[in-house]
Design goal:
It is a single chain. By secondary structure, the protein is mainly alpha-helical. The protein contains six helices and no strands. Helix 4 packs across helix 5 and helix 5 runs antiparallel to helix 6. The two termini are 22 Å apart.
């Protein structure tokens, strides 16, 4: 049983660490520096009112269902928490349940938005899925550290 867990952890760590070995190399041209004009534009202190607009019907339709990734992520977070505690004969606590639901919703909702923002499909998943899995794994390690 211990060997199975160790092998699983090793395969998971190896699959998540592949993007970390990207070769940055040396930069051939120096990076641009901020000028005084750029700084003034960034921290502009004018008192002009902001122009706001009402969303059109098309924009409203595009945002419908945006909560679905959060709901599915929260359900999956609790499901994996309950399954792992049941498998390891540990009690399911309120703190652990709420923490797992919250972190699942956060990584599911934000991760889904990041994947869509980067073009979706295979490219979006390749770009963001390892980061989402790594952050979710980190959150679960904190939960285990706290004893939830």
């Amino acid at each position: 049983m211990k060997l199975k867990s160790t092998l699983f952890a090793g395969v998971l760590a190896a699959s998540l660490s592949v993007p970390a070995f990207a070769n940055e190399g040396t930069v051939a041209t120096p990076l641009p520096q901020f000028t005084a004009a750029d700084t003034q534009m960034l921290f502009e202190q004018d008192a002009k009112p902001m122009r706001l607009a009402v969303l059109s019907q098309q924009e409203m339709k595009e945002t419908e269902g945006a909560f679905l990734n959060f709901a599915i992520g929260g359900a999956a977070g609790f499901g994996f928490y309950a399954a792992s505690n049941w498998y390891n004969n540990r009690p399911i606590t309120w703190q652990g349940s709420l923490y797992s639901i919250g972190t699942g919703a956060l990584t599911g909702g934000v991760g889904g938005a990041l994947i869509r923002a980067s073009g979706g499909g295979i490219a979006g998943n390749v770009a963001w899925r390892p980061n989402i899995l790594a952050s979710n794994f980190g959150f679960s390690q904190y939960r285990s550290y706290r004893g939830w």
